[in-house]
Amino acid sequence: MSKSGAEYQKHQLNIWPEDQRAIRQIALSMQRFGYLQGNPIVLYEGKILDGWLRYLAAQKARVEPSFTTFEGSRDDAWEYSLSVNTVRKHYTKRDLVEMSLSLRRMVEDPDFYGVGTDEEIAVLSGCSVSYVKQVKVSMAP
User: Rounded distance, CA 11 to CA 135, Å?
Assistant: First the structure.
């Protein structure tokens, strides 16, 4: 919970995994230097679209984070989330495919931009459609 008393949830479009080690490292940095105001947590529909790890780290460090609100459509929010998160080098193509397939199962609209088809997932992940299909088979219950 932040000092203002607000408690936020992770938005369903924020498909990026939690990394406990990163949260600890960010929290230690926040304890030493405070919250870097130039990197606000991004809210969409009242939930955290981007900055989930920073939010958890700020709670752990007991510092007040800054927030901004994303204005735009659901498709725009998804595209924003991809643009700020897929550049992270620690995500493999398989990670991106698995996260996209998981998101496709979560959203109500199966034709939702970016996750509606295997072809879109392949483009997002930088891999072939056949690779997406292989991952999908390996994820089947």
Answer: 24
Do 124 and 96 meet the contact criterion of CB atoms below 8 Å apart? yes
Closest by Cα among 90, 91, 41 to 69: 41
CB half-sphere exposure, 14, CA atoms < 13 A: 21
DSSP symbol at 68 = E
The dihedrals phi and psi of 62, each to the nearest 5 degrees, come to 60, 45
Cross-strand pairs, 43: 48, 69
CA separation, residue 96 to residues 75, 86, 136 (Å): 18, 8, 12
Residue 54 sits at the vertex; the CA angle it makes with 50 and 58, to the nearest 5 degrees, is 140
pLDDT digits over 9-39, tens only? Answer: 999 888 877 889 989 999 999 999 999 888 8
Q: Write the DSSP assignment of 4-38 as a string of letters.
A: TS----B-TT--PPP-HHHHHHHHHHHHHH---TT
List, for residues 37-90, the tens digit of each pLDDT value. Answer: 888 999 999 999 999 999 999 999 999 999 999 999 888 888 788 778 766 657
